Amino acid sequence: MSLVSKIRYPTYDEKCKRLTLEKDIRFAGILDEYGKLVAGGFKEGLIPLEDDKTKLHHFMEFISQISLRHELDKELGPINYLAARRDKIILLSFPFPIAKMTLLISADRCLDIEGLASHVIDVFSVEQARLAEK
């Protein structure tokens, strides 16, 4: 069963799918402000490391909440992305504050976090600029 019941953001879905075509990216998905997956998903044919959908859902809710917080923006500036290097994978989240959504990326540990972050920002920057104009 797919984690996305209905694709609500086809442009985001296309960009996420393009990212998952890359060798070391396992997952690229857009979460709404409630942590629900609304576009993207796992690399086609990949068996997720997270075998429990409930745990994955709770994790997505947590990432969404953290990424969209603004308490320290005035003092430190807004969050560009959050990164976590785990034993088995790298997790990155990118807040889209205008749209109140978060991009979550899961990749193999071998990737350079800064290089991956820069690449993801390039892929999504045009779409974010378009949303800012609305």
Structure notes:
With 134 residues, the protein is an alpha+beta fold. It has a single domain (10-133), classed as Beta-Lactamase (2-Layer Sandwich), CATH 3.30.450. The chain is 38% helix and 25% strand. The chain is built from four helices and five strands; from the N terminus they run αββααβββα. The protein has helices spanning 10-20, 53-67, 73-76, 113-133, and strands at residues 25-31, 37-42, 82-85, 89-96, 101-108. A five-stranded antiparallel sheet has the order 2-1-5-4-3, with helices on both faces. The termini are far apart.
Catalogue the unreliable spans. Answer: 1-5, 129-134
Number of strands: 5
What is the SS-derived class? alpha+beta
**Strand/helix succession:** HEEHHEEEH
Present the secondary structure layout:
Elements: H1 10-20, E1 25-31, E2 37-42, H2 53-67, H3 73-76, E3 82-85, E4 89-96, E5 101-108, H4 113-133
Antiparallel strand pairs: 1-2, 1-5, 3-4, 4-5
Essential attributes:
134 residues; globular; alpha+beta
Summarize the structure.
This protein is an alpha+beta fold. The chain is built from four helices and five strands, in the order αββααβββα. Strands 2-1-5-4-3 form a five-stranded antiparallel beta sheet, with helices on both faces.
